[in-house]
Write a structure and sequence with these properties.
This protein is of the alpha+beta class. The protein has 3 domains: about 200 residues, Aldehyde Ferredoxin Oxidoreductase,  A, domain 1, CATH 3.60.9; about 210 residues, Aldehyde Ferredoxin Oxidoreductase Protein, subunit A, domain 2 (Orthogonal Bundle), CATH 1.10.569; about 180 residues, Aldehyde Ferredoxin Oxidoreductase Protein, subunit A, domain 3 (Orthogonal Bundle). Helices cover about 40% and strands about 10% of the residues. The longest helix is centred in the C-terminal third of the chain and has 21 residues. The two termini are about 35 Å apart.
């Protein structure tokens, strides 16, 4: 009666054996579910020398502790594994409707090890779990394969399916796992791990209910939150022109201060994440031209095409949709009628997210909205990460610009900035792993630079081997902390930048209230700022352990009260401080996983290009030296500031030795 199902499912793809494991309440109380139970199993069961694409690696699909309750913004799922892209712990987050389905078949998570001799999929319903032949869907894109499996496995209700497209099958290290006809848990190369196991899909069709401590209390709280979202609104004047003005103001603002971000509910309801694209470009938040440019390189007259209306995103929107347990509904389906190259092939696509627009737009100096909409659907169906695809293409273009790639190697393509026709062709080659260039780029910028050589690593902008999210640390140094200090590098969703909007200082006894400070001062290793980034990161671990959505959390704990929802689900009588310690424990165990697997945390520091100050634009004069900032973050986390390894004192205080004996540190 605490929100979790009490057991997990194990599938050995080498032998075909399937068995359940009951999980002790003590484990749930220390790690919750979601990323917590996922990290617990990975640390316990994946040997240190495991090949990420071999049989010893484990791939886990996890639901959140609050998923399946009457709470809102808690319907997301996680996939975990040893990442083939970074070599450390890998996890990716997905929306849609797959998360509740895991608990509806009776489990908090499903874990796979081994390698199947042939393509298979796992089917679980009220009758049990079995592996089925997947030869007929192997080779199909994720949307087509999902349609086929839905028809094949239809029961009393529609099954929920997670699966890979061609990119995962071909072991692209920048491939993800797809649900809901094109929504992707995209990062860390999780799709390649699934492909290496010859596992095409996980098909779930159950009807079990989640039991928890106080259903009436949860319903009452959720009604309050839903009303807050329903009444959130913005003036009709909000549009292209005003967002440009806001972008200019943000770009010239030299200060950071606490802010209530609950207004984001109205923005997300109306537009979705793509609303901030033009604003971010103008403000200097969006990386331009492979992290070396600025707004002047992608000027207003061009960036105006990649905005909330001019790109056709909103005016061509067919319908909006919500993920499971969502009160906001930032998703949408966009008509592709008349979109070049899509016509006759695709009829619609998911509304592109900000990250996709930025990675395939200003990052490449691409001003063709048609090409971005087409690529969005193409990459969704193939199951390839749009952030890494954009970052890798930017690397390739800069290599071509500097003579490190020849026209012979590009197959005659003029791989230049903004050449959207060449960009589309190369992406198609990457998905198919056809041509030398497509095969070389299919594993991301770092692997491609190792093949091309000749100093090309100077253009491979990664953090620990993963292309960073579309936010420049020279605009907000917290992005650099997210990319460089976390056990999963390169991710913009690690949480460090969110502290000033979370209002944790009103609930957590030791959390400092952030002050209004100069952004330039934040590039220095300030201990109070470092503590804020640590607390926000630990809070993000709680979000990922309950199935939470960052769009709900953006309003702060006084709007989306994670601590209260956990109490209503569990009845544990824990304080906010107690729950924050769970977030600390999960993140520390993720770092210990990396140490166990031979990762030097300092190798995750973001590419040194961000140390070069911009010569013009909103980030003029700003360069970020990440090493001292990361060192201070580690120290405040209870990790050695020089090595990033969790200290003996921290491991013992968090009780990790009682679960795993002597941990590697």
């Amino acid at each position: 009666m605490k929100g979790y199902m009490g057991k997990i499912l194990h599938v050995d793809l080498s032998t075909g054996e399937i068995h359940e494991e009951e999980i002790a309440d003590e484990v749930y109380e220390h790690f919750l579910t979601g990323v917590g139970i996922g990290t617990y199993v990975l640390y316990r069961d994946v040997p240190a020398d495991a090949d990420p694409l071999g049989p010893d690696n484990i791939l886990g699909f996890t639901s959140g502790l609050l998923t399946g309750t009457a709470s809102f913004m808690t319907g997301r799922w996680m996939v975990v594994c040893k990442s083939p892209l970074t070599g450390g712990i890998g996890d990716a987050n997905g929306g849609g409707h797959f998360a509740p389905a895991i608990k509806q078949v009776g489990y908090d998570a499903i874990f796979f090890k081994g390698v199947s001799a042939k393509p298979v999929y796992l089917h679980v319903d009220h009758k049990g779990a079995e592996l089925r032949d997947a030869a007929h869907v192997w080779g199909q894109d994720a949307v087509v394969a999902e349609e086929m499996l839905t028809k094949e496995c239809m029961g009393r209700k529609k099954p929920r399916i997670a699966l890979i497209g061609q990119a995962g099958e071909k072991l692209s290290l920048i491939s993800g796992i797809v649900t809901d006809a094109g929504r992707i848990a995209a990062r860390a190369g999780v799709g390649a791990v699934m492909g290496s196991k010859k596992l095409k899909a996980v098909v779930l069709n159950g009807a079990k209910r989640v039991k928890y401590h106080d259903p009436e209390g949860m319903k009452s709280y959720s009604q309050t939150f839903a009303e807050k979202v329903r009444t959130a609104s913005m003036p009709p004047i909000i549009g292209d022109t005003l967002l440009k003005v806001i972008g200019h103001i943000a770009g010239h603002n030299r200060y950071e201060a606490p802010s209530d971000d609950s207004s984001s509910y109205a923005l997300m309801k109306r537009f979705g994440t793509h609303a901030g694209t033009q604003l971010s470009i103008i403000a200097g938040d969006s990386p331009v031209k492979n992290w070396q440019g600025g707004p002047a390189d992608y000027p207003t007259r061009d960036s105006n095409k990649i905005n909330i209306r001019g790109s056709g995103i909103d005016k061509n929107e067919i319908r909006k949709y919500h993920c499971a347990q969502c009160a906001i509904g930032c998703g949408g389906i966009v008509n592709l009628d008349g979109v070049e190259r899509a016509s006759g092939k695709f009829t619609h696509t998911h509304k592109p997210e900000y990250e996709t627009l930025a990675a395939l737009g200003p990052m490449l100096l691409n001003t063709s909205p048609d090409s971005i909409l087409y690529l969005n659907e193409l990459l969704n169906r193939a199951g390839m990460d749009t952030i890494s695809a954009g970052g890798t293409l930017a690397f390739a273009i800069e290599c071509y610009e500097n003579g490190l790639l020849t026209r012979e190697q590009t197959g005659g393509l003029e791989l230049t900035w903004g050449n959207h026709e060449a960009i589309v062709t190369v992406v198609e080659q990457m998905i198919a792993r056809e041509t030398w260039l497509g095969d070389t780029l299919a594993d991301g910028a770092r692997r491609a630079s190792e093949i091309i050589g000749r100093g090309s690593e100077a253009y491979a902008i990664t953090a620990g081997g993963q292309e960073p999210g579309m936010h420049d640390p020279r605009f907000n140094v917290g992005w650099g902390v997210d990319y460089s200090a976390n056990p999963t590098p390169g991710r913009h969703t690690n949480g460090a930048t969110a502290y000033s909007t979370l209002f944790l200082w009103e609930r957590v006894s030791y959390a400092p209230e952030p002050q209004r400070v100069l952004k330039e001062d934040l590039t220095k290793p300030d201990p109070e700022y470092a503590l804020g980034t640590v607390l926000a990161t630990q809070y993000k671990m709680l979000i990922d352990a309950v199935g939470g959505c960052i769009m709900g959390a953006a309003g702060g704990v006084n709007s989306w009260d994670l601590f209260r929802m956990l109490e209503l689900a569990t009845g544990w009588n824990k304080t906010a401080d107690d729950y924050m310690e769970i977030g600390n424990r999960i993140n520390t165990l993720r770092q210990l996983f990396n140490v166990k697997h031979g990762i030097d945390p300092k190798d995750f520091l973001m590419h040194k290009r961000i140390e070069t100050p911009r010569q013009s634009g909103p980030n003029r004069g700003r360069g970020v030296q990440m090493e001292p900032i990361v060192s201070r973050h580690w120290e405040k986390h209870g990790w050695d500031p020089n090595t990033g390894h969790p200290t003996n004192e921290t491991v013992q205080r968090l009780g990790l030795d009682q679960f795993f004996g002597e941990v590697v540190r």
